[in-house]
Sequence to fold (149 residues):
Amino acid sequence: MKSPVIEARRTPEEPYVLDDQVGFVLRQAQQRHTTIFAAEMIEGLTPTQWAALAKLSECGACSQNHLGRLTAMDAATIKGVIDRLTGRGFTAIRADPRDGRRLLVALTPAGSDLYDRAAPIAALITQKTLEPLDKNERSTLVALLRRLA
Fold:
């Protein structure tokens, strides 16, 4: 009896080399960035918390669901992020003045202050992450990653 599992066939001309696989290299680059982020960012902010703060500063108050879409986080992840930021006094939930059934997430004054202090550090983190690349390579990398996203 044949197994229902179909094995991938590799030819000797095209061996599978993990180090040459895009997912593996992207994970290594992400680990580099995460390490730099953790070493440099203030107030113990995580990358997801920073993304939420930065997007709220950029766009203003919005629903938690919309914020999740803007920051590429699923509903459960953005809820946890906002719960933690709200618990620390950096965000607040309030009723939408145009639709009382809808809740909006917004930065508090402490959250705005944190954003102002952290934004230059976030820019430095990006610079350190991309440090091995020259200016043209940095632009090309970001443009190519945006096409994949």
